[in-house]
Design a protein that fits this description.
By secondary structure, the protein is an alpha/beta fold. It folds into two domains: 88 residues, 2-Layer Sandwich (60s Ribosomal Protein L30, Chain: A), CATH 3.30.1330; 143 residues, SPOUT methyltransferase, trefoil knot domain (Alpha/beta knot, 3-Layer(aba) Sandwich). Helix content is 33%, strand content 23%. It contains ten helices and ten strands. A six-stranded parallel sheet has the order 7-6-5-9-8-10. The chain has a four-stranded mixed sheet with strand order 1-4-2-3. Strand 6, helix 7 and strand 7 form a beta-alpha-beta unit. Helix 1 runs parallel beside helix 5 and helix 6 packs parallel to helix 10. It is elongated, with a radius of gyration of 20 Å. The two termini are 39 Å apart.
């Protein structure tokens, strides 16, 4: 369904779309933006529920192969209007407004690993971790006081990985109580933990906890879980949180992919 070309920056639909670059309004509307041809193509293919597509009217034919697979609302706009919505350095002329999937009861599939992110703040790290979680089979992600996973920077750096994850906002107390109740073992990433390559995990329910870039995981998680680490040469003090999380996920669950 395609309407008339929107030329005004003050159009209500355009103002709402632009507001989705702000976390407060993403939460209010329950939607976020997916910006750029590759990511829009992927989300329209069925990865998540799309509300509407904003398309540069001068490029409608160029994106025809995407539009023909979308039976929702297509909003043609001028180049100036779509550039006002996009936060990309080089806007690509097509943006999807997508519904968040943070709904429903927290009920991860049995014997499926859980990823717990404790106060991760860097959007690039978060996006990398989400993408690797999708690649390695960590379908359920629990966020504790972490950066907004639906911010444009995180969505972009996840390269579409966020479309395939079940994401839940929880408190430390809530997730610890859940893991105890379900007899789920906590593996906590910590520099002083056991060498991950000497660890043996055989069919047990577990969750991997990745902590804040500067402070690591909380003391509570350290007390409740088993500390694991990546060995490294003495001249290197630590690895980037995104890199560490990615390696740990592959080591723990890579054989099950």
């Amino acid at each position: 369904m395609q309407g008339e070309i929107i030329t005004s920056l003050d159009n209500p639909m355009i103002k709402e779309a632009r507001s989705l670059n702000d976390k407060k309004f993403r939460r209010f509307h329950g939607k976020f933006l997916v910006d750029g041809e590759k990511l829009v193509r992927e989300v329209v293919a069925g990865a998540m529920q799309v509300d509407k597509l904003f398309v540069d009217a001068s490029r409608l034919s160029e994106f025809g192969y995407i539009l023909e697979k979308f039976d929702g609302k297509v909003v043609p706009v001028t180049t100036k209007v779509i550039n006002s919505i996009s936060e990309n350095v080089t806007p690509q002329g097509i943006i999807a407004e997508v519904f968040m999937n943070e709904t429903g009861e927290f009920s991860p599939e049995e014997n499926s690993p859980i990823l717990i992110l404790d106060r991760i703040q860097d959007p690039g790290n978060l996006g990398t971790i989400i993408r690797t979680a999708a690649a390695t089979g960590f379908q359920t992600i629990v966020l504790i006081n972490t950066a907004d996973p639906y911010s444009p920077k995180v969505v972009r750096s996840s390269s579409g990985g966020i479309f395939y994850e079940d994401i839940f906002q929880m408190t430390e107390k809530e997730i610890i109580e859940y893991t105890k109740r379900k007899n789920i073992k906590l593996f906590v990433a910590d520099m002083n933990g056991e060498n991950i390559f000497k660890l043996s995990v055989h069919g047990e329910n577990y969750a991997l906890v990745i902590g804040n870039e500067g402070q690591g995981v909380s003391d509570t998680f350290k007390l409740e879980g088993s500390a694991i680490s990546l060995p490294m040469k003495s001249q290197i003090e630590s690895l980037n949180a995104g890199v560490s999380a990615s390696v740990l996920m592959y080591v723990l669950h890579g054989k099950n992919i």
